[in-house]
Amino acid sequence: MWRRRLLLQALGRLPALAARGRPLGPGGGRAYAPPAERKRFYQNVSISQGEGGFEINLDHRKLKTPQAKLFTVPSEALAIAVATEWDSQKDTIKFYTMHLTTLCNTALDNPTQRNKVQLIRAAVKFLETDTVCYRVEEPAALAELQKKEWDPIVAWAEKRYNVAIGSSTSIMGPNIPASTRDTFISHLASYNMWALQGIEYVITQLKSLILSMGLIDRHITVEKAVLLSRLEEEYQIQRWGNVEWAHDYDLCELRARAAAGTLFVHLCSESSTVKHKLLQD
Description:
The protein is built from twelve helices and six strands. By secondary structure, the chain is α+β, with helices and mostly antiparallel strands. Strands 2, 3, 4 and 5 form a four-stranded antiparallel sheet that branches. It has a two-stranded antiparallel sheet with strand order 1-6. The longest helix is centred in the C-terminal third of the chain and has 23 residues, at 246-268. Residues 15-30 and 272-281 have low confidence and may be disordered.
């Protein structure tokens, strides 16, 4: 049921509001930027198992990556999720809503040619500018809100990983101990290359390693993670109001991306095939 909800969020169905814009890749735009839309050219979507993993079939055509590689994913569950993205398209294929497909393309083609060590370093580097570690002193109401909402997730991360993180009101940010960085490096090293692509993608969306790990560890929901990542913006909206429709679109899109990245991490860590459809309750 948890995965079903993540998939629906990734598809932009929770809430039922169409997402706009193009997906940002790991590192803020390093993934492929597919064409915005294209007329649907297939009737049926299916998956099949090949020598290299699970493949996506659009009618009788094998799906390919932007570099013309065979689109092959490591788990059946991920293949079903990607196939669901393609099958959910109506008369027009809206590539910018297909976050799982984009993440798979990035993992398969690796356009920036980064290795596992580089991916881990990029993820851990976000600790230096982690959203929940930067605090304000004024206005007092916002400072209190940050303390109330962010302190618990920081405390959870410190206990979960047995590290010291802290927070700071200095523009230099908190002084993160080397031992804390080493612990996160060691933890992230337990993930495979595909999952690391997804982790960095989630971190990039939330601007926070701490929130991302809380989400991936299922300590917080997508809605909570997004709210915490936008806390100052939400505070300003509550105080001054928002631009009608624009705020809702931005919120929906961020939730969709965070959900897609989180689902991608879990499905890339699957060691066995599934016997029932991902969307089955």
